[in-house]
Amino acid sequence: MKILELKNLVKIYNSTEVKVRAVDGVSLSFDEGEFAAIVGPSGSGKTTLLNLIGGLDSITEGEIIIDGTNIGKMKPSKLIDFRLRNIGFVFQAYNLIPVLTAKENVEFILELQGKKRNFRDERAMELLTAVGLADRANSRPSKMSGGQQQRIAVARALASKPKFILADEPTANLDSKSTENLLDIMEQLNREENVTFIFSTHDQRVVNKARRVITLEDGRVVSDERK
Amino acid sequence: MVIITAIALGVFAGVYTIAFMLGWMNQKVDSLINTELSHIQIHQPLYLETSEVHDFIPNISIIQQEIQDEPEVKAVSARVIAACMISSAEMGSGIQLIGIDPAVEQQLTNIHEKIVDGQYFDGVKSNPIVIGEKLAKKLKVKVRTKVVITLTEMDGTLTGGAFRVAGIYRTTNSTYDEMKAFVRDEDIRKLLKIDEDAGHELAILMNGHGSENGFAEKLKDKYPEMQILTWMKIMPEMEMMNENMNLMMYFFVGIILLALGFGIVNTMLMVVLERVKELGMLMAVGMNRVRVFTMIVLETVFLSLTGGAIGIVIAKVLVSVTEKTGLDLSIWAEGLNSLGFDAVVYPTIGFDSIFVIAIMVIFTGLISAIYPARKAIKLNPAEAIRIDM
After folding, report:
1. CATH-assigned architecture of domain A2-226
2. Alpha-carbon torsion B121, B124, B125, B131, what sign?
3. pTM score, two decimals?
């Protein structure tokens, strides 16, 4: 089932002297349950493309259709709410809230959605168990390793049962063991729960695990391989 | 922590200074009423302008008795007053000589409690006089020293009499001490040749503060031919100071909070800058702008409230202590006394004033939060997440 479709997507950054076409006519579609990696050299437009898909940046031309909704034409306030309910984010630097515990960091998304306390408790614990960190539920991020923090970030991204998860270089700050561990968990979630993951990455280990690899160069898709 | 400390210090300084000013003002009013003026004074309509001996109230003792019978009145003193010259062997000075019945006057004013040398009309059999310390120094006289009073009789003849200093008093108002001397009313009557039933001033002390205005109105109806004035009308500058005190103190706190407000804005901007990544993440994952704005505002108000509460509690504790012990400013006593203020101040502050200050602190927090909160919601989440801190 198709959950995301990009039609002739263009993003132009206007600086004073030159126009930069960071994303230049990208058309792609993603089905539910994909485990896809967007790769390419620095400046190829990976992060820009991910920001556009996540509704964090405005498009210049084209369409982004998520589960039948064109988010390119959405008002900013509606877009924020759309993100909250439909898209999960995993960031390179984890970006957990330092003053909250692991469980509170996961619950937080559900609180924004207005979910009741009991539901939040259960769901947070369920997700922490899924990422293998139920025993660290009451620990603060500062007391955890990078790998553990990123697994909490994955649990947070999953909290709202999003249509897909966008992970921008999720392993860039992790050592080999943590990377392996994180990728295993994500792959397991993908296989068992049918969670859709779209990564932007430089990391060959992520590319190896991905079942679809999209290569960008100068903002264009130069290859789209399925394994 | 820094901002809470700064707010706490600012609010503490503001509250304590206000308590200090209020205490000072209350003492000044108390001193005015209990030492100098009493609550209400009655004179012949012309007397306060002319101060002439012949502008007296006839049948003063009858009026005195009538007023004394009123239940809200504590005491009434009939006074005979004359402008005169007082001379010692070395020096002379123009003063106001006040003839009183010492037994009655003690119920009304507290000069008898302020005797620093000698006794209040005791210890000298004939013609005792009680003078202020500043006048005593000026005349270079001590207790039992003889002084000569020169004044104008009712018919305009210049006359004089010898008095002996029975007591020397010291109030908080050195100008008063220099200008007022007290003698027994029968002694001054003899000098002035004024009728036994006549006097220049009736001073009335009420049972409690606040009832003087209503009672003065009542007296005006009863004695329309007299000039009846409350202490506030006799010294309108004190009324103005008293009434403007609240305004002044809120203005003062306002200035302190304005300075604090800029500090809060600066600190909260730093907070927003330090948390750009966190704020970017919150907005990226779906926290809307209203929530982000509210979060920053609530954080600021919480900081202000915490700091404000700490400041108010410290100030209130210190006020409670110094309210009993007093704050000794005697190194500036001379200057303060010449302005009529006490050198030992007993700060005081009511919960109503504290409540208003607390509201002002919250308001400052709210206003100061707006700019940083606006900065926060203008962040671009995509850029904010990737900023290297």
Report:
1. 3-Layer(aba) Sandwich (3.40)
2. negative
3. 0.70
Instruction: List, run by run, the mean pLDDT of 10-residue segments along chain A (227 residues).
Output: 92 82 92 94 91 91 92 88 92 89 93 92 92 92 92 90 91 88 90 90 91 94 91
Q: Does A94 touch chain B (CB under 8 A)?
A: no
Contacts of B277 in chain A (CB under 8 A): 93, 95
Q: What is the pLDDT of residues B73-132, one digit of tens each?
A: 899 999 999 999 999 988 899 999 999 999 999 998 889 999 999 999 888 888 999 999
Contact between A184 and A176 under an 8 Å Cβ cutoff? The reply is no
Q: Does B280 touch chain A (CB under 8 A)?
A: yes
Q: Does A99 touch chain B (CB under 8 A)?
A: no
CA B333, B337, B340 angle in degrees (round to 5)? 150
B interface mutation test: which of A13, A78, A80 has the most B CBs within 10 A? Answer: A80
Domains of chain A, by residue range, sit at 2-226
pLDDT digits (tens, 9 = 90+) for B164-197: 999 999 988 888 899 999 999 999 988 888 888 8
Q: Is B249 on the interface with A (CB under 8 A)?
A: no
Q: Do B278 and A84 touch (CB under 8 A)?
A: no
CB contact under 8 A, B382 and A109: no
Neighbours of A67 (CB within 10 A): 14
DSSP B307-368: HHHHHHHHHHHHHHHHHHH-EE-GGGHHHHHHTT--SEE-----HHHHHHHHHHHHHHHHHH
- Rounded to two decimals, the ipTM of the complex is 0.87
Q: Which helix (H) or strand (E) holds B76?
A: strand B73-87
- Residue A47, chain B, CB below 8 Å: the answer is yes
